[in-house]
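Sample pair:
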Amino acid sequence: MRFTVVHSTRYRYAAPVYLEPHTIRLCPRQDGAQRAMRHSLEISPKPAGRAEGLDQDGNVMTQAWFTGQIDVLELRSEFEVETLRDNPFDFLVAGADRDLPVPYPEALAPYLRAEPSPAVREFTQSIAAEAGGKTMPFLAAMNQRLFDTVTQVTRREGPPNSAEVTLAAREGSCRDLAVLFCAAARTAGVAARFVSGYEREASLQENGELHAWAEVYPHGGGWRGYDPSRGLAVAASHVAVAAAADPLLAAPVVGAYRGAAKSTLEFEISMQVE
């Protein structure tokens, strides 16, 4: 499957402001599940400097810094990606992965940290019991449970809600569901991280949206995605951009400004899928 995406983001400020350095994660990642054919990022006004690199989780990032005052910041990301994985379960389930909790090396500790509330712990334990303490059935059951019982809402701005808030409200955006999935997976002893990117269903909308889901780590397959807002395991219909233990570290744009002016966010995403 081939995705062609044009993503324009515009920050308007009610009065001129000074921008602090910004971190931008809009370049699709390159891995065994997808191949980036091309990518470009235009920034206006032209920054005083920019640097490309990898962040602490291996995501492609652009650091941009500015001089002078501005009242509009515009970012335009264009890319073409081919997704390669049709079967999300094309791996061997290692013996260590079969039962909860999964034993992991210390390197995966950041993706296992959890301080669940009693409600999240109870939710996790009930699904784990239904799955007989088996890892893969647990993940599938949790993904389906969240899809079936949490009402989908659209919230274009703001960080994701906590797992506790989403579980209590029984409604949430895709990023809220991803955070809840990660929290429950970690509570059960499965390494999990938050992912931001795009998915095929958005191509059917007049103005597409960014999407979010979760990834877990089975030893036999590496990082594998689950999308509780769609009720499916992730395969060729998703394009991952950034992933991290902390959702803020996978955000497409992170930065601040100096000045008393209020800001507004506008964005347009057009997507073609072949």
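The CA atoms of residues 6 and 270 lie 5 Å apart.
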